[in-house]
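Ticket reopened. Same input as before:
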Amino acid sequence: MAFKAYYLSPDGYLHRDLSEKEVREAFQSNEGLLWVDICETTMEDAEFLVRNFGFHRLAIEDCVSTLIHAPKIDDFGDHLFIIVHGINHKGESDIVETAELAIFIGPHFVVSNHNESLYSVDSIVNLVERDARPMKRGADFLAYVLIDSLIDNVLPTIDRMSDVADDIDEEVIRNPQQSTLEAILKLKRSVLRVHRVMAPQREVLNRLSRREFSIIEEEARIFYRDVYDHIVRIEDLGQSLRDQADNALATHLSSVANRQNETMRVLSTVATIFLPLALVAGIYGMNFEYMPELGWHWGYFAVLGFVGAVIVTVLSWFWARKWIAWSRRQVTRVRPFAVEPDKLVSYIDQMRKWSHL
Amino acid sequence: MAFKAYYLSPDGYLHRDLSEKEVREAFQSNEGLLWVDICETTMEDAEFLVRNFGFHRLAIEDCVSTLIHAPKIDDFGDHLFIIVHGINHKGESDIVETAELAIFIGPHFVVSNHNESLYSVDSIVNLVERDARPMKRGADFLAYVLIDSLIDNVLPTIDRMSDVADDIDEEVIRNPQQSTLEAILKLKRSVLRVHRVMAPQREVLNRLSRREFSIIEEEARIFYRDVYDHIVRIEDLGQSLRDQADNALATHLSSVANRQNETMRVLSTVATIFLPLALVAGIYGMNFEYMPELGWHWGYFAVLGFVGAVIVTVLSWFWARKWIAWSRRQVTRVRPFAVEPDKLVSYIDQMRKWSHL
Amino acid sequence: MAFKAYYLSPDGYLHRDLSEKEVREAFQSNEGLLWVDICETTMEDAEFLVRNFGFHRLAIEDCVSTLIHAPKIDDFGDHLFIIVHGINHKGESDIVETAELAIFIGPHFVVSNHNESLYSVDSIVNLVERDARPMKRGADFLAYVLIDSLIDNVLPTIDRMSDVADDIDEEVIRNPQQSTLEAILKLKRSVLRVHRVMAPQREVLNRLSRREFSIIEEEARIFYRDVYDHIVRIEDLGQSLRDQADNALATHLSSVANRQNETMRVLSTVATIFLPLALVAGIYGMNFEYMPELGWHWGYFAVLGFVGAVIVTVLSWFWARKWIAWSRRQVTRVRPFAVEPDKLVSYIDQMRKWSHL
Amino acid sequence: MAFKAYYLSPDGYLHRDLSEKEVREAFQSNEGLLWVDICETTMEDAEFLVRNFGFHRLAIEDCVSTLIHAPKIDDFGDHLFIIVHGINHKGESDIVETAELAIFIGPHFVVSNHNESLYSVDSIVNLVERDARPMKRGADFLAYVLIDSLIDNVLPTIDRMSDVADDIDEEVIRNPQQSTLEAILKLKRSVLRVHRVMAPQREVLNRLSRREFSIIEEEARIFYRDVYDHIVRIEDLGQSLRDQADNALATHLSSVANRQNETMRVLSTVATIFLPLALVAGIYGMNFEYMPELGWHWGYFAVLGFVGAVIVTVLSWFWARKWIAWSRRQVTRVRPFAVEPDKLVSYIDQMRKWSHL
Amino acid sequence: MAFKAYYLSPDGYLHRDLSEKEVREAFQSNEGLLWVDICETTMEDAEFLVRNFGFHRLAIEDCVSTLIHAPKIDDFGDHLFIIVHGINHKGESDIVETAELAIFIGPHFVVSNHNESLYSVDSIVNLVERDARPMKRGADFLAYVLIDSLIDNVLPTIDRMSDVADDIDEEVIRNPQQSTLEAILKLKRSVLRVHRVMAPQREVLNRLSRREFSIIEEEARIFYRDVYDHIVRIEDLGQSLRDQADNALATHLSSVANRQNETMRVLSTVATIFLPLALVAGIYGMNFEYMPELGWHWGYFAVLGFVGAVIVTVLSWFWARKWIAWSRRQVTRVRPFAVEPDKLVSYIDQMRKWSHL
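Engineering reply: fixed in the latest deploy. New output:
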């Protein structure tokens, strides 16, 4: 049973490290603001929550269970139960993992549950320990601070994914390998996973920022709206990453096909040059009794010259048809979409319509 | 006619193994809770239902017919008719099969129909036999317990699919074969099938957990909401499996292309080395009378040396260009998306905005 | 002018083969139930409908025109005009074709139009001829019987498509050819076509089963709802077929790529073995004056032995690397998704939550 | 300033070729029906419209501008401004182009604008010139006739695209080339373009056929509904074309892959036959002093026989494995989806359910 | 602190370059129209806005932050806060970048913020400096002019992208390279980015043009509707570009496959011709003692003739089968979709239905 409890009494004094009895008293006083934060919620904690707060057992079960729960709001009349997801920054998998935060919000209390310790919650704990500021504007505001912090902590991971995507973009042109493909696919799955928790969260925050729940007061709603906007931004960035990954995939496949093409050209070139010449040599290696050329004094040198000439000619011809390239350097023509200022100005003039000026 | 009937009379006594007459009396008493469970519903059962309960013939037809029926709710005013799907754990096909459960819910009765015996219903029967607990909270709660048990039994199959997906992920890198492709495609079809029954079920449970049907009382609705949440979770897990299968497919195709590429390189390397050398040998095998080199004492050894030198040179060159690799081992660079704690802290500081603190 | 007209007078007597005058009288009596069925509607029939029923010319035009009309309901206040689609079982195209049925429903009449003779309508005609039963429950019920029969007749075609899909599944693994691809694509187009008429029909039936049209009475609505459910089932089956066809396509493409791979391997193997050996033979065929090995007694046999040894070694090596396979038999490992009963039971126990029992 | 103006006065007389003054008088009379049709609307026309009709400058700007405007309805209270699209039958691009028709509809006037001359408008002009019939039922009906004519003129183009699609279907099997691919892609883009103007138009016509605008009277609405149905049909036909083009694309790619496969097989066959035989010939061309076979009398013929035997054997073996085919003819097995009548009848019997007859 | 402030007093006089004090006075007068434009908003500007206008800190934060914010409207009761996006014409990336404009609109003031200098805002500044016209119709109209100018400035970039797409279309047929692929993918990402900012903007403008916000007066709404129409047009153009890019991608991949095919054919042709001939030469190079042909006088010339005949025959055969082409020119058959006028006329006649004329 590892919970931290803070109580800001109506006189503005912050009580720390409350015992179970103090928590119950604070809860029943219906004044001030009580915050209980439980990390790695156990069955014991569950009983504690039932005993003191009377929350619904299904909601508590969601806190205890280590399964993943989709973001949602349950309205229990006198309090809300919210599940939101952020990034599990301690996960060690190759694919981004999410972390859940379950929050009960009442008029005078906030109870937060999470199965891993979260940087975002820790940072709020630190703020509260210092000067209790996040608790001074009420339960809805404290819940907002927790959710906002969780959501904003997704951005560093998006940044990291963006760096990885740029690495891949470079590697896919320079030196595409099977491992590049795997990196692309892992990136895609990570982006999809972030998308999949953000999409329902958008709806959750949208509902919180509307007039739907009386516990969220007018003043706090605009802050929830701001979190909503951040989720929209995260989704946009995720979409861009997905496009980038899709393009990297297309480039990868094309690079692989190109290399195979190149291999085939080398083979064809070699065969086209040497098979006919081998025939020539083979012919003069035949043992017919009457082969006049064999007696010619310069016959051998004529053949040698012919062989040399053919090799040079065919290579030049293939070179001219761009079949074979000595170097791999490819100049990618940049086609910036930027429009020149003077062209823009002429557009602007044209757009200055007679209709409304 | 193989039905099991239980009647919990208002005095809390559980009557077991009711006869048709007792069933009719219990139904007409409009008190207590009657539960009739029919496995492998026959025409005889159908007549039984019409005779005693007066259900609509179309609904009964859905129970009797062995065709698949999509999940739905039909509201007959004084009772509901619900069809939900779980997994048919006894199916032996390579592709996941679903099992139907059709339930009539009235204020004082529940009639459940299924064409195969279901583990989930069996387990509820056991509970009822023991102490009748699932029947003590009314018809809506008993129906919930049946549906919840059916839906939760989907999770073991999802787990199994997840194991198969992990196996495939490994095989697709280690040793991709045509059979791997088939396994991927079967997994995908199974995931799609689960998705296709879960999606409409989400809607069914959503309606049951709203205030739409008076038979489902306020208190029970939150439990139906919980089943809804479970379906959402199953859908999320299914989506992840689908992403995994899609990635396995992409990796498979890329592996196959890579192997072909490798084959081509071996061929090209061999041809590039030996065709020119064969020409050299062919030239010195010509029968011209005047070929000065043939008389040179070390001519033969010069040619042998040249041949050896060319082979070594070309192989080294290809090796340097990474055209040929002696071993297949590929080190997949792991790029974890985890962000370092100190970087996170600096983000958090940056995010502590002047605007709201 | 080939119409069949039946009139069930209020006294329960069925009049057959009505003349135009009798039809008009029956229509104007506003009693009983008049059914006029027109096959291959001509301009003459159109005039007949305008003259006697006063239907809107646009609706009649839809009946006459042989173009395809999307499923729809037009509400003309005192009667409905409905277009629904079934399968044209007489079509001979490789791709499934649909057949239209246009129905006018009034309080005391049903007028059905179709451009081809339909098995489903014929079967209702037979029923009516026998004992008039489908007409005894009113116009809305007769219309339902017509529509239900049309929709149910889609199922045999779905079955046939399913058989074709299974054939393809087998062929695509055993012996994929260009014609297999064409069969897959035709199947997909057929499925899409069925989907494309069923999707709007779902909406049509949904509207008919709601309280939207007063001509459809409460009692009949549940039957329309049943047709709606059948359409949902057809759509589900169609979706499964589409998945199957998509998988067959993926398997086909992969099989083709595999065969090409195999071809390349044969080529590479042959070249890798014989090009170097040809060089050896070529070298000993050179005409240098001083080639000591040529004088060795066992030189020739040494070369023969070397050639044999190389062939055996390389083939064994490729064999060990699984590059070449003597037989094509591939054992597809079956991975059933079925979960063992005892594992299931442990899941069920785990799921028996403390929260609600 | 090239406008045509017609005025049908309340007494039923049609005035032709009105001057600007007459147009203004007709407009201000608020009686009868005035139709002004402007082709290639210029700034001068724009001033004319402002001066005499007082239309909003933004709407007029849409008429003058040669940019493409999406279909829409603007409701200006006493009149509507509608933009609809048809096909530009005079376009010469490889990709279908659309043509705009902008219509102002008031209670007693219709003003139509288009930047190209349109066959559909011309045909209505002809009808009006003849007997003024399209103008006799009011402004909403005249507008309907214009829109209906424009939309129906899309069908010939759909027909043409369908012919092209059938051509492609044949060519893609008979003789697929790069130009076939381009034809497929152009067809797809054309279909998409038609779809992209039809989709919003569906919404426009839907709104016109509802009770939304008082200018469109009850009686005319059903005609607008009919145009809506035509658009639905065009969309359906377009969808079928798109499926056909997608299939043609898949077949094309598969054909190309097949041909490459065939090329590889020829190569492999040739190499497999001749490389080993060349080795045999090379071995007997070696100059070892002691090669007993060389002295055998029938040695040479034995080698010749061996060579012939190998060629015949390998070719037969490849032939048996279907690696090589002498002719390209492929019998495509037709798998009609049609169900046999007797099978259908048995289905129908089975479907005649006990529940409702 | 780099802001430009204009104040149009109620007497129609334009005050330029207001100091902070004048701005505050103008704001508090609640008359006339105050416009403050801030480029590269700093924390100092933020304090300025809080001090003088009392805007919400979250809104100001959106102005200051250089992160990307999705288009949105926040309604603060007495003023609106709008974020819209245009093109950043100064961006130098290969992929189109967007630029944000954040606008506060009150009854008597407009405050615009942007982090880069924008051509569109500059042009409005110029107009205001000249004769204050854009300010004479109120705050809602000024805001419209700013947004309209921003959106219209997207068109030159769309034009530029269209030019690039046409270039690519040509290059992809003429000379497809890896760099072509990259250009296609960059174009696609640019189109997607434009789409991704335009889609939510459509919603923003839709809301502004409805009766939702009292600050936007009836008269101005139709202008906002016009901007909405422009966004729809930009989206349509973007969609066309996307289709074009997708087609270019398909053509590119097909071209690459075709070239590989061609390479393989050259190789196969060479091998098919020269490997058998080399065998012939090899056979006559064998050293058997008894080879009767070797003694024939014309034997050598017979072999030479045979070699020549084979080469000519095989090349002709391949040529006839279209395996090899001397030139690369491919005549793309144009299949215009235009329908001939007379065919159209017959359609039109057919469409002149009896039903409504």
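Chain E has ten helices and seven strands. The first helix of chain E runs from residue 20 to 29. Please confirm and we'll close it.
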